[in-house]
Structure formats: C-alpha cells, structure tokens
Design a protein that fits this description.
Order of helices and strands: HHEEHHHEHEHEEHEHHHEE
Organism: Ancylobacter tetraedralis
Pathway: Cofactor biosynthesis; ubiquinone biosynthesis; Quinol/quinone metabolism; menaquinone biosynthesis; menaquinol from 1,4-dihydroxy-2-naphthoate: step 2/2
Oligomer: single chain
Number of strands: 9
Enzyme class: transferase
Low-confidence stretches: 3-29
Helix content: 40-55%
CATH topology: Rossmann fold
Radius of gyration: 18 Å
GO molecular function: 2-methoxy-6-polyprenyl-1,4-benzoquinol methyltransferase activity; demethylmenaquinone methyltransferase activity
CATH architecture: 3-Layer(aba) Sandwich
Largest sheet: 7 strands, mixed
Mean pLDDT: 90
Structural class: alpha/beta
Shape: globular
Protein name: Ubiquinone/menaquinone biosynthesis C-methyltransferase UbiE
Strand order of the largest sheet: 5-4-3-6-7-9-8
Length: about 280
C-alpha cells in the first residue's frame, strides 16, 4: 500500500466522532491505542514515545525548522499573540505542557513584560535538558522553569496558571482526555487553554503534495539530520491519526473547557484550538 492510501485510511479513521475518541482515551490502561499506524497496548505507548524524543532531542529544534520550512515559528508566534502576555510587570504565569526544549515558553516571556514567567512541563528528561541549556544561553533561566512531569498527572495546584499551552505534543499523550482535564484544572478561572497541533489539509492538490512530502521526504530528512528515520516516520503517522478539528474540539468540551473553538492555519496543515476555564 502506498503512502497516499495509508494517509487516506488514517484520515477516514480520524473522523471518529468526539464521543468515541473520548471513550478510547478514558481507557484504564488495559486497552489498545495507536502508535503511528500501529496498534499497541495503551500502557506501552508512553515508553515508545519517550524513546522517540530521547533519540531526537538534540536535533529536535533544527528538524522543526527543516520539516516545516520555518513555518512552525509563524504558528508559534500566532499562539503567543493569542496568549497576549502583559507588557507590564503584572504577573502572568504560563504552563507549557509537553513543552520540551522550551520554544513556546521562550517566545512568551520575551513577548511579555517582567512579570511574565513560564513553566515547561515535559515527561522527557532529554528534551528538558536541551531546554535548560537554551534558557541559560538566552539569559532566561530565571523566568522559565523546567519540570519533569506527566501531562496526565500534572504536579501543580488547582487554579495556579493564567494560561496553559501544548504545541505539537497532545497527539503523543496516551490519554488526551486526561491531559486536557489536567490543563483545565490548573487554570485560574478565566484562564485560557491553547492547543497547537497538526490537522487536516483542506486545500485540493495541497493535500496530495503534503502527503508525498510527509511520507517520502521527512523520514529521510530525519535519517540525515538525527540518524533516526523511524522516529520521524512515527511523527508523520501520528499526525494522520490525530482527530479532525471538530472531534478534538469535542474532547476539549468534555474536559470542561468553555468557548471552545479552532482556527485552521496554512491550508489546514495546523489548527490552533482554544478554550476557557469559566
């Protein structure tokens, strides 16, 4: 089966309605889930994802630039503009879940005033190590904290952050519904949750070009830059398994978030989802 057929099959499965997606994500751990196009025990997915990011941590940011042709910077800047961190000394606390090397957090504190701080929570120590090094290099170590934590069990008090974000990370979480509920739990009332994630290309012709680029070129690029094609094959496949925007919006609503919406970007390659804790 060629890449186009695989991608189309995955697109069909990803149109699953929100209730079904939510039920699958609520599984106690004894069930199955997807790791790319493979079906794996739910309890094993986190270990497999950890191996992917340990393998690519040192070259992760470079690969983001290469794979997206720099567009990930535009998408993240749009996310930060929606966060609207205050330019003043007024306190603004961001929690960036699965924030890895700190890219969104650095952009946020640089856009905000002296009162803007960020906490990066990530389960992968290798990614956090790279992030801490970057923070020191940028002179932001006093404003960006790095915490090793599971997105499904965040070690922070209720109502402790002004905003929560997760950029290109939610699809790697075994139980997305738990992560979204946790991101809501730690929000202050009125706080906003943003999810930036790959989506469904909705422009004719572009979808075929995007599939060819993703399946034929990105794994090879990963092999050249990181020495690891398999990890990038997984990342490409995981994008195709991710729920369509409206189904994911249903997960956000089920997690208790209100005023849920999403904005497709770059022909639907990416979507910026948002919700509010009331």
């Amino acid at each position: 089966m060629d890449a186009g057929n695989l991608a189309e099959d995955a697109r069909v499965e990803a149109t699953t309605d929100a209730a079904t997606v939510n039920a699958a994500e609520r599984d106690s751990g004894a069930g199955e889930t997807h790791f790319g196009f493979r079906t794996v025990p739910l309890a094993e997915k986190q270990r497999m994802v950890d191996e992917v990011f340990h393998s690519v941590a040192r070259r992760y940011d470079l690969m983001n630039d290469l794979m997206s042709m720099g567009l990930h910077r535009v998408w993240k800047d749009l996310l930060v503009s929606r966060l609207r961190p205050p330019k003043s000394a007024r306190a603004f606390k961001l929690l960036d879940v699965a924030g890895g090397t700190g890219d969104v957090s650095f952009r946020t504190v640089e856009a905000g005033g002296a009162g803007t701080t960020a906490t990066v929570a990530d389960i992968n120590g290798g990614m956090l190590g790279v992030g801490r090094e970057r923070a020191a290099t940028l002179g932001l170590a006093d404003r960006v904290e790095f915490v090793e934590a599971n997105a499904e069990e965040l070690p922070f008090p209720d109502r402790s952050f002004d905003a929560t974000t997760i950029a290109f990370g939610i699809r790697n979480v075994p139980r997305m519904d738990k992560a979204l509920s946790e991101m809501r739990r730690v929000l202050k009332p009125g706080g906003r949750c943003f999810v930036l994630e790959f989506s469904r290309v909705d422009v004719p012709v572009l979808d075929a070009i995007y599939d060819t680029y993703s399946f034929k070129l990105i794994p090879g690029m990963g092999r050249l830059v990181t020495g690891d094609a398999e990890s990038y094959q997984y990342l490409v496949e995981s994008i195709r398994r991710f729920p369509v925007p409206e189904a994911f919006a249903g997960l956000m609503r089920a997690a208790g978030l209100k005023r849920v919406g999403y904005t497709p970007l770059t022909g639907g390659i990416v979507a910026l989802h948002s919700g509010v804790r009331i």
